[in-house]
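Notebook entry, cofactor series.
This is the third protein in the set we're modelling with a bound small molecule. For this one the ligand is adenosine-5'-triphosphate. I'm keeping the input format identical across the series so the outputs can be compared line by line later. Sequence and SMILES below, as received.
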Amino acid sequence: MMGGILIVEDEFAVADQLKGVLETAGYQVCGIAVSVAKALSLMESSRPQLVLLDIQLKGTANGITLAHQLHSKCIPFIYLSANSSESVLREAKLTQPYGFLVKPFREKDLLVAIDIALFRHQKSTEYKTMELNSVRKSLRDINLLTEMDERIPGSVPEILQNIVPFDYFTCLKNENKMLRIQYPGYLRTDFREYQRLGFTELSNISGHQKGVLKELSLESPALNNPFIRTMADFDGLARSSSLAGFYSRFFRLKSCLCYPLLMADGDIQVMCFFSKTGNTYQQEHIQKLDVVRSHLEAAFSKLFAPVTGRQLTQKPQAGSASSVSGSSFAGIVGRSSAVLMIFDLIRKVAQRDTSVLILGENGTGKERIAKSIHSLSARKDRPFIIVNCASLPIDLIESELFGHEKGAFTGAADTRTGKFEMADGGTIFLDEIGEMPLSAQVKLLRVLQQREIERVGGRSLIRVDIRVIAATNRNLEKEVASGRFRMDLYYRLNVFPVTMPPLRDRKEDIPLLAEYFLKRQQEHAGGEYPYEISREVMSQLLSYDWPGNVRELENFIERAVVMTSGYYIDNLSLLKGDFCEEGSDRRRIRTMEENEREHIIHVLRLCDSKIYGPGGAAELLKIPPTTLASKMKKLGIVKGIGV
Ligand SMILES: Nc1ncnc2c1ncn2[C@@H]1O[C@H](COP(=O)(O)OP(=O)(O)OP(=O)(O)O)[C@@H](O)[C@H]1O
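Returned structure with ligand:
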């Protein structure tokens, strides 16, 4: 096997035993290193295919230090550690390992972890190659154009967005080691919409004279010396440099990546990507830029060649913003940087058959995103089957998922097709995967690996062609650590994770979402006039934390419309759920739904949020737990939050 596996472990006996296990399983071991220094020197002579990495090592540097280097060299690695404390796990997670095994572990777990790591690495390499090929092609296209930003408006920022995400992009001119504004910047305003900001626009936004803007500066990185500034480092940069301070203040930016390019005329121009999120940029973005560097230099040399009529003060072209919202991501509202990044991710992954794992709190739109991935994929005309793993009756899970033959068990009067078969050719969405019992997880893993199912009581295997999207609001890593979720299944599903941000972290979307839900209410009611929210109520919506996320906002709007007699929503007590205004001549009657919601919350509080089992809320309410769970979902009740 090319490359082989490198073992980095300071206890010789353990390392030797690992070597034996790996060789018996058919792997080649390319070396054993007891320290980071030894590992690095071994890696100079041959690049391992995979590294098994202990965290505590001899010498000053530990495994996590080496992990950063492995990550930047794109070498997959699995941690083997006796220490599974949360703080170590947190630190280790930042290095993006392909697996984590807590010592002592079983031989079988090790081999499964290696198998998964190699599978994931192969997928991600294929994915990166495809992505970079498409970027190279786009950059070649730019190179063919002379006045490109006028002929294909918006194309440059879109192509760059595919390489490195940004909310604001500009190219700065290097003059005596200082960077200054010379060319326009692009502010992202929607999925495919960018506002082109030249001196005139920047001056209008900031109120600074153009002369002042021309004086702003930032220390230039040397050629071949790009830099990333995130979180506190970016704040430091914004304080020490007038230009970074200007961008950070006016566009609320929190991190940046600056990458110098050598132009055909010998000048240095620095591409600057800025993000509204503090931790957007990683070494891997620089690596991507390195790969397409010559194409970027050629394209930008062309772009910045002195052509009259393309000065920075030029007015934005008519139609310089093209919007696709409403088509590809139908029904998903949001323009915050966090949501636009999710759009970028799903547009990239939709075309491929990769499994996607959608993470996020309840009501953040996981199901919506899953549907969107399906409808953007080549499978869009085939079925999209939703399975709610939390509400599958334990004794019927297998039959629900895989179907059964007639007479397979008492009560199986007919042959039944399972969800996986129904989804053949399309997508299966496994919602609340974290709730799936362990026994069913084994079977699911087999389907994911072999793409074959066996009906209960059946004798033959049936091939299924499916794309799997799973979602959960649980921290699956914790579930794995506590033994409630299979590690191999977790890594199989976690090929392409997408994390939905909670609504409180993207409050700028609240007015848009509110408007969208109000419009829907108006359409439902067939109303003549649009509903409107008063400024005071809107400011309450903006300051509320929305523990139930978008679903809670949606429910709020629905209630507000019901509770309001006209079209203007200005009742400030709406958010408190107190609809009986003192002295009002029209005391409100609570709806059945409101009563039901309140009653469920009351009972949940009585039983400490326990739903299932003896003494649980379902038992007290005399309804099946699955019914209670779906009622809670419908009514926007989130366990543990206000309950
Ligand atoms: N960005 C959005 N734009 C418009 N509607 C949205 C958006 N996000 C969520 N919604 C709406 O909010 C509700 C909850 O969304 P969804 O069911 O997709 O969330 P979820 O994360 O899957 O929730 P759960 O974890 O409880 O299953 C749905 O009615 C959905 O239509």
